[in-house]
Structures are given as C-alpha cells and as structure tokens.
Specification:
Elements lengths: L1 E2 H4 E2 L7 E4 L8 E4 L2 E4 L9 E3 L8 E4 L2 E6 L8 E2 L2 H9 L11 E3 L26 E7 L2 E4 L3 E6 L5 H9 L10 E4 L13 H13 L3 E9 L6 H10 L9 E6 L3 H12 L2 H7 L3 E4 L4 E6 L6 H18 L3 E4 L9 H4 L6 H20 L10 H5 L5 H9 L10 E3 L9 E5 L5 H11 L3 E6 L12 E5 L2 H6 L6 E2 L9 H16 L5 H5 L36 H4 L18 E7 L2 E3 L3 E6 L5 H14 L8 E4 L12 H14 L4 E8 L7 H10 L8 E4 L6 H13 L7 E6 L4 E7 L4 H16 L3 E5 L8 H8 L20 E4 L6 H11 L3 E6 L6 E2 L4 E5 L2 H7 L5 E2 L4 H16 L6 H5 L2 E2 L12
Parallel strand pairs: 1-4, 13-14, 13-15, 15-16, 18-19, 18-22, 19-21, 20-21, 22-23, 23-24, 27-28, 27-29, 29-30, 32-33, 32-35, 33-34, 35-37, 36-39, 37-38
Antiparallel strand pairs: 2-3, 3-6, 4-5, 6-9, 7-8, 8-10, 11-12, 11-17, 25-26, 25-31
GO biological process, one term: D-galacturonate catabolic process
Family: Belongs to the UxaA family.
GO molecular function, one term: lyase activity
Length: 904
C-alpha cells in the first residue's frame, strides 16, 4: 500500500487524472482520499492514471484543460493511454500493459478568439531598486554576458571553413574564445524559401551582445552572401556594427584562404581579450526560453520555475522570450490569459495559423510534433506538450509582443517569437533576436548548448538530475519533493546572475555546442494531393502521390550503359568477406542532439585506437535530423540514409548513439535494421541520457569498440570493379571532359563495379556525356531513390530533390558509394566525412585560382583526362593519396528533407 502523495502528482486541483511520479506496476494499491484503488495495469513514470470516475466520451484533464476523451467508462486507477502512447510504450517492451487504449486524443479544432474574455492586464510590478550583473558593455545595445570572437558562415558552403578556422585558434587568448557558426542553410543554387528568416538570423548573430568581434565568411556565388546580409540590415534599419568585424569571400585555395582570414582575426584577439566586465543593469538580460526532451513533469516543475525566474527578471526591467510555435497549439487560452492588447492576441493566433499552413503544405499537422521520447515520457499528444510548455509563461505575467523568427526584440517584458519546435532551430531565432542567455528546460536531460550564448539547463526530476548532474545546472525536481517554488526561484535567480556575470554553465564546462537555423522548406503553397486541407484531411493518401514527391524506393536495377575492357589495378583490403578500400569504425548519432558528442568520441577513439588495428579510421556523422522535423516521407528518407551508412560496405564496426528523447531513438533503428534483414546484435548501442551523461556514455562507447578481437585488414590487389563510385560535375566543363567521365564510368561498370550519378547533376544533363555513357542522348531517369542501396551493380542514377552539394554527397554515400570523383569549375567543394571526395579540373581559371585544392589537373583529350581520373581514384582507394579537402579539414555531412520535410 502506498499513499497517493508518494507516487502521484495532480497538475491542478480539479483535474481528473494524475501523473505517476515513479513506475507503478500492475496490482499496485494506492490510498486515495481515504479509499484504496488497485492499478489494473502498469503505469510508467510520467504517465497518467484516473483519480475520479470518467464516463465514456468525457474529457480527461490536466491543468483543467481537456487533452483526451475516455474511450470507455474509466474508474480510479485506470491507466490513461491513447493508441499512440500505448504503441510507444509497447515498442519499448514494457510488461503489464493493457491490450487496448483507454482514451483518444482531443481534436485540435481551430481556436476561436472570444475578444470579450481577454484580460488586458498590467505587467508584473517592477522592483523599487533594479539589480545589476557584470557584463560587457556594447556601443550598439545591451551588454553581453559573454565576449566571443565569432566566425560566421553565411551558408553551408563555408561551414567547413569557419569550423577549421576556429579550430586553429583553440586556446587563443580572446575573451571567451573563438567560435564558429556553422550551419546547413543557403547552400543550394536556387534562392531558398527560408531566405528572410536566414538573413534575419545571421544579421542578428552579428549584433548579438555576446559578440565581441565577427568575421562573416561567404563563398563566391553564394545566394546568401555577406553582401546580402549587409543589404538586408540596411533595408530593415539594423544598427551598424560597432565591434571589430570584416567580410571575407573565399576566392582561392583552402589553406591560402585560412591564412588570409586568420590574418584578419589576429589583431582582434588582444582587443577582445582586453575588455573587462562592468556592472550593468539586469534590464540588459534577454532570456531565451526553451524546452527539449520534455516529459510529463516539465509543466509541473522546470517550466514553471523558468517562468517564475523570468517574471523576477522582468520586474528588474529584463526580457524573456518564449518560442516554439507548434508547441503552443492547443494552449491558446492559457497563453492569452493575460495579454497586452487585442492586436497582440490576434498576431499570436495569426502566427499559429501561419505555422499550421506551412506544415500543412507539406502534408503534416501539429499532431506529429511530440517525439517518440516525448510520448514515452508521458506527453501523449500536442495538447499535453503545449500546456506544459506554456507554463514557462506564468499566469500573472502579461504577453507583451509577438514577433517573427529572428526579428530584433522590440522592447522589454515578455515576448513570443515564431519558431519551430525543433530546439536548436528555435534557439537560433532567439539568439538572432538578441537573447544573451538561454533557459533550457528538460525532462530527459537534453545536453544542447549554443556556441556564444550560455545555456542554463533545468531538469524536471531529482532522479534525472542525479543521473546527469554534470550536464545539468538546475534541479527543478526539488519542487516535487517539498522545496517551495519561491525558494527555488530565488536560488535559480541568483544562479542566473552569477552565470550572466561569467560563471560557466554546465554546457560551457563540457565544451559542447551546436547551431541549426530554421531549415528550408520546399512547398510554398497548397499542393493538390499533398497539402492538409482546412478540415485536417489530405486529398489523397501519401502512398498515392508520385514517387518523386514522397521519395519512394525504386527497383534498384541499373541502366544498360556502355562498358569497356580497360582495367586499372588498385591495392584494396580484404575485410571479413569483402574487398574494400578502407574499414571504418562508425559512431552514428540518431539525432542532431547527439551529433557533436559522436564527433568528439570518434576523434578520441581515433587518437587512442579504441578499435585497435581492426579499422583504418573512426568516423562520426553529425546531422540535423531525428528530432524536430516532420515524419512521413522525410522520415523514410532519413531512415534510409542512416541504414545506408550502417550497412555500407566500408563500415566494419558501427555504434548508434542516441540522445535519448528523439523521435528516431535506438529502439527505432533496431526495428529498422530488422526490417532491412540485418541483425541488431552486430551493432553497438549507447544513450547519452539513459547511460548517465557524457562521461558515462563515453566509457560505454570505448568499452564496446575495445571489446572485439578482429583481425586487421589484409592488403589484396584488385581493380576498380570492386568499387562503387559517384561521378559529379559542378560548374562549366568541356565536351572532352564529359566524354572522359563517361569513359571512367564505362571502365568501372565494365570491371563489375557501379557508378552513381545525381538526377539533378550537370553530367546527366549533358548530351555528350549521355551519348558516351549510354549510347544515346535520350533522357535517363532515376534507378534508386535518394540514399537507396541498389539491387544490382551497374550504371545508376540517384533521385535528388535539390541541388545542395553536401546533401548530394550524403545521398551518394548511403547508396554504397565508396568514393566521389568531381570535376569542379569556379570553385571547389567540401569533402564528405565518410566518403572521400576527389576533385579535379580541366578549367584553366579554376586550376589557376584553386589549384592547391585540386587532387589532379585533367589535361589532354577525353582519353587522357579519363586516365588521370582513373589513376587518381585508384590512388585514393589504395590509400596512397588523401584528398586535399579531407586533409585540410574541409568536411561536412548533411541529410536532405526531400520535398515534403519541414521543421516542427
């Protein structure tokens, strides 16, 4: 027998369901209001059970808000589960569950504004003597909580460059350090649909109070360039940059440009380092309010605590910024409980409507927001998640402003910013708006941080805090065990001032950070057969859409192209049962939030040889997917790409590293591997949250790779017929070069190997190439979907939904490509982390300007150029040549979302 107070929490008086504060097995007896109830089924921590009778069809409530309807008459003790939540728990192998769900989700009907019911209240009372903190004064605005030199890429094309440039200044005396802003956006040839958001965010980054100096880096031909940012700032009335700054366009070799850019930065370092903290008003603090890895207690402890600390800051003249639009759908009455005026209320509702339309164009609804981790931890649907998220806005605090993503903050008080529920994408908008400190609430223990703005992480329960204390800053779970909210607020407010004044947060001590800007979306209006209609229905099923729209798999059978009898020898490796150019140890993050940790672990594993001589190198593939993005077609493409690398012929050992709260967690990929006919026991599995944080998970990963006694790969001579090669051309090329590529492909295929081309690539669009490769200039269609492994070797074409180079290279690798040969003109390309990218050129201007970055210069007629290309492929496959882009650190990895993916 246990008392209710020991095992349950009622969100608010009057609710008819409670939240289990620990796992309750079937048969548990609970004393509730003087009576004993017996739980007929297992109720996991964070899941809900009935405390008062609920008839069929009646509302089930939390915070006095309906989140579901009873599917049958429910009595005290009954487990509340929807079809989605029951499936999520069943998939984790939990015992004692019911056979059928007991509730259905509350419909997300459009919220109707009742203007007469709005409360136009006053903002919280100001303190008589506003406080201060120690910050860095800025001529152009509020003081900074940090003082960084920021190296900002305008597009993904420069992300590898700023990352490597920042690495070369590791440990330099420069205030709080030199940090890169590397991201995935703006890398396509066309103008992106997120251009306004992208320019606003990048402009805001340059003016953020935590930036002591900034270098803005673009690449020739970028749509999103330094000039575009300058023009955007002038057009929209941004103040001029007052800190040391420069705009740098890459125009020559990678190493050459690193030297030139480094010379621009070096004089700034002592200037930034000499700046001192001064006493400045708390009104200069601008808090970004975020939640990630949420659970059922987020709305009970961590979110209310963040809200109360924000309220206290507002009393001192400061600002708090709420975001994540789709995570407030269903909480409209709560958010508008206290609002500045009717116009603000209407703009908030208009923002939600606009967000619904945007995801609707892509065939999605907000119901798809809660991740698998969210559901498993008790957030059954978007209503529960939204009400809990909205608790970051205390009832007594007034909503003052509603602004667009990345828009400069219009004043002080409490502000809402439009943004997706994807944590990192949302944070970037808030930082672009001017926030200089982040409150990040989490149930599972999210470890995300931003490069130049400190993050304070509030964890919802004491048990989770104890497990992850090295990564967390605030134990909000103390509220659940008796500490008053007032005491916790005072304690956390003091910590906030200390961190704003220079004390390092847990994330800063760990040295982990990531940037992701609201990602581009493909659809810009309703599309028949794709878009969700106003009544929430699709006009057709996804399976009925054209295969290119949903990126459906194809038969994987090759085209009948031409071949040759030529054979180029190559020194390969005999690994297990196959002949390959290298044996890779892979650490694959299952979502964006574990990406940087995977990268760090792979570097450590390479240095310390965790896998001994059984692998030739260690690789991690950080990316932006797996959490705050839509499902359906884009999720299928993502899963297919991930499986492609796990099952790649060059992968000898692979471990999956989950964050722990993502949509695509370890269990998700276990089932996907089984579907693909692979044995999950072949792979390693680790979880940052479940295994106890960064140190614990690092030890687990090390132990797994060190546990094998595999024979070292053995040298064996072969030819290019053992390889799968991607062929690509960027920029202008001659008819002779086109024929040379065809000759290269003909030898590889004729030797028994495979060639993969991009459906959007310049080679396939060239008549001379198609004629020389396929014997006809007729159009050639895709044989495989993006990232799909093919069924038989030969000539293949991969469907490509866009023109972004890194997304193309990532798709190539997932098909099984082991090396990419690219002809470049007008500039060079970044390398891919897993697949070597070999760059050569026949263009004189390119050779003159970028010759230091080329792996070969293609001279002579088609046959001579083909021989140069084949010999270079062989040299890289034989490990005699390391491609220049790989050696210089100009590497990346980026997964496409296809035509239907969007941020949520």
């Amino acid at each position: 027998m246990v008392r209710f107070e020991q095992i349950g929490v009622l969100p608010e008086p009057g609710d008819n369901v409670a939240i289990a504060s620990r796992r309750l097995d079937a048969g548990t007896e609970v004393e509730l209001d003087g009576t004993t109830i017996t739980l007929p089924h297992t109720v996991l921590e964070g899941h809900r059970f009935v405390v008062t009778p609920v008839p069929t069809g009646a509302a089930l409530t939390s915070w006095n808000t309906a989140f579901a309807r009873a599917s049958r008459d429910l009595v005290p003790g009954d487990y509340v589960c929807t079809p989605t939540s029951l499936a999520a728990v069943t998939a984790r192998g939990v015992d004692g569950l019911p056979d059928e769900s007991s509730a259905t989700n509350e419909p997300l009907d459009p919220y109707e504004l009742d203007e007469s019911a709005l409360n136009f209240g006053a903002q919280v009372t100001s303190v008589e003597q506003p406080g201060t903190f120690l910050g860095y004064r800025r001529e152009q605005g509020p003081a900074g909580t940090r003082n960084h030199v920021v190296l900002m890429a305008t597009s993904s094309r420069s992300s590898g460059f700023v990352t490597e440039l920042a690495r070369r200044f590791d440990g330099a005396s420069a205030g709080d350090g030199v940090v890169p802003v590397a991201h995935t956006e703006g890398g396509e040839d066309e103008v992106p649909n997120n251009l306004h958001f992208l320019l606003a965010t990048l402009a805001g980054f340059t003016l953020n109070p935590n930036v002591g100096a900034v270098l803005i880096v673009d690449t020739e031909g970028d749509v999103v360039s330094g000039r575009a940012i300058k023009e955007f700032m002038a057009e929209h009335g941004y103040p001029s940059l007052k800190v040391p700054h420069a705009y740098f366009t890459r125009k020559a070799g990678f190493e050459h440009d690193l030297t030139i850019a480094g010379a621009l930065i070096e004089p700034w370092l002592p200037v930034v380092d000499a700046q001192q903290r001064e006493e400045v008003p708390l009104a200069d603090l601008k808090i970004a309010l975020q939640c990630g890895g949420s659970d059922a207690f987020s709305g009970i402890s961590a979110n209310p605590l963040a809200g109360q600390v924000s309220a206290e800051l507002i009393r001192h003249g400061g600002t708090a910024v709420l975001a994540e639009t789709d995570e407030l759908i269903g909480a409209e009455p709560y958010v508008l409980n206290n609002v500045r005026d009717l116009a603000t209320a209407k703009r908030f509702l208009s923002t939600i409507k606009s967000f619904k339309e945007r995801v609707g164009w892509h065939g999605h609804t907000a119901e798809g927001n809660p991740s698998g981790g969210n559901v498993y931890r008790g957030l059954y649907n978007i209503v529960l998640k939204s009400i809990g998220a909205a608790r970051k806005l205390p009832r007594e605090v007034r909503l003052d402003h509603v602004i667009d993503y990345g828009e400069p903050l219009p004043g002080t008080g409490y502000i809402f910013m439009d943004s997706p529920g994807n944590d990192l994408e949302s944070v970037a908008g808030q930082i672009g708006g001017g926030c200089n400190l982040i409150f990040f609430t989490t149930g599972n223990g999210s470890i995300t941080n931003f490069p130049f703005v400190p993050t304070l992480k509030f964890v919802t329960t004491s048990a989770r805090y104890e497990r992850l204390h090295a990564e967390m800053d605030v134990n909000a779970g103390k509220y659940l065990t008796g500490t008053s909210m007032a005491d916790l607020t005072a304690e956390t407010f003091d910590l906030t001032i200390r961190v704003a004044s220079g004390e390092k947060s847990a994330g800063e001590r760990a040295g982990h950070s990531q940037v992701s800007i609201w990602r581009n979306w493909k659809q810009v209006g309703p599309v028949d057969g794709i878009s969700i209609t106003t009544d929430g229905r699709m006009s057709r099923k996804l399976a009925d859409l054209p295969v290119e729209d949903r990126d459906a798999p194809l038969d994987g059978l090759p085209h009948q192209g031409l071949t040759s009898e030529s054979r180029t020898p190559v020194e390969l490796l005999r690994v297990d049962d196959r002949l390959v150019p290298e044996a890779v140890g892979l650490i694959l993050p299952t979502s964006l939030c574990s990406g940087q940790i995977a990268l760090r672990l792979a570097g450590q594993a390479e240095l310390e040889k965790w896998a001994g001589d059984s692998v030739t190198r260690m690789v991690a593939l950080p990316h932006t997917e797996g959490c705050g993005s839509s499902g359906g077609a884009s999720e299928e493409t993502f899963a297919r790409i991930m499986l492609g690398y796990l099952l790649h012929p060059n992968t000898r050992m692979a471990l999956l590293l989950e964050h722990g709260c993502e949509k695509t967690h370890n269990d998700y990929f276990r089932s996907r591997l089984v579907e693909a006919g692979a044995d999950p026991a072949r792979f390693g599995w680790a979880s940052i949250q479940a295994d106890g944080g960064l140190d614990a998970v690092g030890n687990k990963v090390k132990d797994w790779f060190s546990s094998f006694q595999l024979a070292a790969p053995v040298d064996q001579r072969g030819d290019l017929g053992s390889l799968t090669v991607g062929l690509e051309a960027r920029g202008r090329f001659s008819a002779a070069t086109a024929e040379a590529f065809a000759l290269i492909g003909r030898e590889i295929v004729g030797s028994g190997g495979s060639v993969v081309l991009s459906s959007r690539g310049a080679l396939l669009a060239d008549d001379a190439f198609r004629t020389a490769a396929f014997g006809s200039a007729d159009p050639v269609g895709p044989t495989v979907a993006h990232g799909q492994r093919f069924a038989e070797p030969g000539w293949h074409v991969m469907r490509m939904p866009g023109t972004d180079w890194m997304e193309t290279a990532t798709g190539f690798g997932a098909t099984g490509v082991q090396q990419i040969l690219a002809h470049v003109a007008g500039g060079t390309l970044s390398a891919q982390r897993f697949v070597p990218v070999v760059e050569f050129s026949n263009d004189p201007e390119t050779v003159a300007m970028y010759g230091d970055d080329l792996d070969a210069v293609a001279t002579g007629d088609a046959a001579e150029q083909a021989r140069i290309g084949l010999d270079t492929i062989a040299a890289v496959a034989s490990r005699r040549l390391v491609p220049k882009a790989v050696a210089s650190g100009n590497v990346g990895f980026q997964i496409t979302r296809g035509l239907l993916g969007t941020s949520m």
